[in-house]
Each structure stands twice: as C-alpha cells, then as structure tokens.
Amino acid sequence: MGGLQNTLAFIFVLGVMVVIHELGHFLAAIYFKVKVDAFSVGFGPRLFGFKRGDTDYRVCLLPIGGYVKMAGDMFGESTGDTSKAKPGEFLSKPRWQRLIILFMGPAFNVVLAVALLAGLYLFHYERLAYWQEPAVVASVEEGSSAEKAGIQSGDRILSFDGEETPNWEAVKLTEIAAVEKTVDVGLERNGQPLTVELEVTADDQGLGAVGWEAATDVQLSPYPDTPSARAGIEDGDVVRAIDGRRILAVGTVLELIRGSEGRELQFELDRNGRTVRTAVTPEFDERSSPDDPAYRIGAGVMERTVVAELGFGEAISQASADTMKGATLIFGFFEGLFEQRMSARSLEGPIGIARMSGEAARRGWTDLVSLMANISLNLGIFNLLPIPILDGGGILLLLVESVIRRDVSLAIKERIIQVGLVFLVLLFTFVMYNDILKTLPGG
Q: The whole model's pTM is what?
C-alpha cells in the first residue's frame, strides 16, 4: 500500500507541476498568437484528451513531465530555420517574444510556489519557534567541527562566513550551503566577542553540518496510559528542567530519560506561563520501537512550534520571503556542485520524489502543500539552467542571437540539441541509479 500511495502522490504532485509549467508557455504563446498543436501531460502514446481549436489537449501514458508543442517548433526550444517559418509558427515571432514564451514556464512554477505557500499560511502558518530566536548554542557534538573549533554551550552566534546571523534560521540556511568550506564564525561568550575558524563538513545527505544544536524550548505530547500521562503532563507543556538541569535541546531530554534506568525524574514544566512540577518514572519500552529498546516516558518530545493564521497581505509577504530563501539555498547548492564542494548524490530523482510525496501525503495536507511548493520552485529554477533542451538553454541561445544579431546556424543548433539530449539522459540515469541505491539497506 505504501508503494501505491507513493506512486499516486507522485503522479498528482508532478501532474500539478507540469500543468502549471506548461500553462505558462501556453498562455504566453496564445498571447503572441502562436499556433499551439498540443498541450500534453506526460509523454508517449496518447491515452485520452480533447481537441479545441488548433490544440490537442491530451494525457499520455508516461506521467513523467509534459510539453507544449507549438507549430514549427521542435523540442519546445528556439531551433530550426527562422527564414522558413510560416506565420503563426513559433520561429516566425521576434526573439523577445520567443524568449518570454520560454521564460513563462519556469516563472509560473515560481509563482505556483508562492501561491501554494500563501494559501497554506492563510490557514496554517507553522514555524519552529527557535528559528526566529537568537542563535544560542545548546550543546556541541563530541568530535564535531564545532567542538574542534572550541565552540561551547551558551555561545551566541553573531556571524557565519561573513554574513550576519541574527537567528537560527539564518545560521542553518548558511550552514547548509557552506559544506566543505572553512569559515569565520563570530561569537559572543559571556558578553565578550570572539571569532573562530570552523570547518563545515558534509552530513549523510551531503549538506553542510558542524555538529552544534540550537537552544530551543522542548514540548511534550503525552500518549494515553503512559508514565507521562499518569504524571499529569499535558499536551504542549514546555520542559524547563529535569532534576535541576536546564533543558535547551531535545537531545538533552532524551539523554536524561534513557539514562535514568527507571529512576524517578523531577520535571519542571511551563504550562501557559505557569510553572508546574511533577515526578515521572520512565519505563523500559521495547514494543513501540523493537530496534531501539530504551527507557521512555511515553510522550512525543519535540521542538516548540508556533502556529498562526496570517492575513492575506502577511501570507503573500511571508510566502514570497520563504520562496526567496529557498531559491537562495538552491543557487547555493548549484554553486557548491560547481565548486565540487557538494555531492550530486543529494539530488532526488523520480523514486525519491515519489517517496517524499507519499510520506508528505500520509502526514497531512499541510506537509504535502509545502512539499509541492518546494518541488515547484526547484523545477522552475532547474528549467532556467543554461542546458540545451531546457528552457534556460533556449533562452541563452536567443540571447546569443540577439547579441550577434543573426541566427545561429541550423547545424550548430542541431549539435547543441544532441549534446543536451545526451546530458539529460545521463543525468536521468544518474539520479535513477542514485534513487535505487538509497532504497537499498545502508544506501
């Protein structure tokens, strides 16, 4: 059932992305009076559809991608001989119009990302509370880059790689893209400023990590008939201390519970601004997680989140800001690939996207909408890369022709298309191979 759910979620998510992307091309083509022969969702044999005017709207067998076929336009790019183009064909239009037609596909994906997030934020705007709080280090992992640099619990991060980092969100976004770099980190320790050099290493996903944990409020969500519920802990209680030890991170709570060996623990909680103290006795649990038997209190232990409903203007503004942050992160990833600091193994192909889509769908509509916005943004930016066959390749060729004020020869365009096809086939093969490896044990 999980595989079927993943497949259905993948088809839905990708279908929406493709329809919106191709709709951008289609509307721009219609606006400039270009004849559109086909609007297709999927590739391969036509399954069903209808024809209206000159356009065949169809759904094809392979639900991976789609295209708009404009009259006289091969592969949806600026190929062919413009001198032989007939009125109404793509190549008969001025270069600036063709450029806009190509650009509108990726642009619609970016607009969709903003629209999805804005719609979500109107009803459910949820953020980790600590992301907007000062970047104070709760703990440092033993043997990590942060420990080697001398960073300590309680240090406040002021700057990272020359960028001011007023909160943890800014720190994390910069840290992810700084993989395999040695950066200067500005700190404040006991009111005194200092600077350390920090080597950013790659985590299991190939993203930047240094081994520090953010200081954050830790919330509990008790399960029925468990030690936490019997102790009177309520959903949303924030843990301030356990046995007198101040709590700043989820890892500290789990460490104290697991290391209790069944000894009674004294919890100090914050319940809606009121201090509550209670004793909880962890129980050895091997049923809920057979692969990881341990002492537990029977509660979800998580970082505190903030949930709100934004107004229309606030939702648009926040969605635009989040989309811009996402775009910056994507461009940082491409920069890391180009500089060979980041691994292409972190790329997700169809299998990975299907898995993530299924997991998001099972968690709920809010996670699915967020994932769709992320995929749409990635799709839009990826299509703007100057790779032949992609929209960005066609845009680059049109810009070159505009500069030299003449068409690139048909022979050169054909070679460019061939190179682009080979590159995309190799890329698709790589991401599929990478996806399959990730599904294997230890992959």
A: 0.76
